[in-house]
Amino acid sequence: MDRARFTLSADLSATQTADLADGEEVPMLKLPTTGISTSGNSFTVAVDPADVPDRYIGSNGLVSLEMEIYDPASDSYAWTTQSVRLVGQQAARSTSARSWANPIASAQAGTVRSVATLPPNVNVHLGKAAKGMKTALVSPRADTCRTTKIGQNDAWATIGEGFPAAPGYGTKRGTAWMTHSNGSEVTYGAAITTDGTKWSASGSASVANTKGFNFQWDPDTNMNISYRAEVRYYKYKYDCGGVIINRKVKAVSETGGVKTIHVDANPPYWLSRAKCTFDMPAGTWTKTTGKAYSNSGGVKIGSVIGIDLSTSRAYTKGSTLSYKMDAGHDSLCGNTDKPGYAPKVQQFYNRIQEEL
């Protein structure tokens, strides 16, 4: 990738994009590429916070970056997007006090603070460039590149799951519920097409719930619960000198809608001494930290672009999963580790360890 051509830009914040009409050009912020370095098939991107004006900084310090890669040697092309969080800007005006953080690792439920985290890691696949792309991207006409909003769609997205216990030795099932509070964040997958028909997942955009609502689902006893939020996607066209380079879809905001889906399938079975805690006392268990929840097909947008997209969400005080624990339902198991560490958690009835 040493000879690849990189283009780096920032998208407007959600509040700035809210009033964009279909057919309107998006004033993307073109960023310097001097901070991009390559090594074999990998690249690193460094952006000076001073280069990003306030109108491109969203709620909780979120900034949506976009990168375009064109390799003339192989005539291959890729586009991706990734959100990052600008932290420290409230502490001082000096740019030396500002830095970037991974939104998932630094989620703070509506606050922005200085957090030292590893940068986001994004996998990018270069595919065969479309006809005419090489001329459009390397010629002087590339200076006429523009992004235009061409439509929007609302889609339901799974942002959490609950798996209450079966009755076991009693007569009642366990209960689970979730909260999604104002300021909470979810990262939604993005997608691109270069031919107008076949879409591919590429990157993601982190969206803060800024619609001024909090929602706590009522306790539910269904064995397989999907908690969903409605998210608005914008569809964009990107062209250079009149040649369409790509079309893309990105999440820009949540609509305020939420719903519950009772999944018509058996729950998972994560029973394991290495991943479970048994004989817990009566009370309410609430997950506010640990590994982020993720769902590779969480965004149900397949009817629009032919594929579903991913969701991921950090557990915070404003974005939780809860179980009611009692004498008949006293065990919890994680899908990858014990419940405090795992991204997904399942409840079991009492004495379940006797089945191991």
Report on this model:
The chain has 356 residues and is mainly beta. The chain contains 3 helices and 23 strands. It has helices at 14-17, 133-138, 302-305, and strands at residues 5-10, 25-26, 29-31, 36-39, 42-45, 62-71, 76-87, 99-101, 127-128, 146-162, 175-180, 185-193, 200-208, 215-216, 225-240, 243-262, 276-277, 283-287, 293-299, 309-313, 319-325, 331-334, 345-348. The strands form 5 sheets. Strands 2, 10, 12, 13, 15, 16, 19 and 20 form an 8-stranded antiparallel beta sheet that branches. Strands 1, 3, 6, 7, 8 and 9 form a 6-stranded antiparallel beta sheet that branches. Strand 15 (225-240) and strand 16 form a beta hairpin. The protein is elongated and about 75 Å long.
Shape: elongated
Q: Which structural class matches the secondary elements? A: mainly beta
Largest sheet: number of strands, sense, barrel closure? 8 strands, antiparallel
- Spell the H/E element sequence: EHEEEEEEEEHEEEEEEEEEEHEEEE
Q: What helical percentage do the residues reach?
A: under 10%
N-to-C span: 52 Å
Unreliable spans: 108-116
Percent of residues in beta strands:
35-45%
Estimate the mean pLDDT confidence.
90
Number of strands: 23
- Radius of gyration, in Å, reads 22 Å
Number of helices: 3
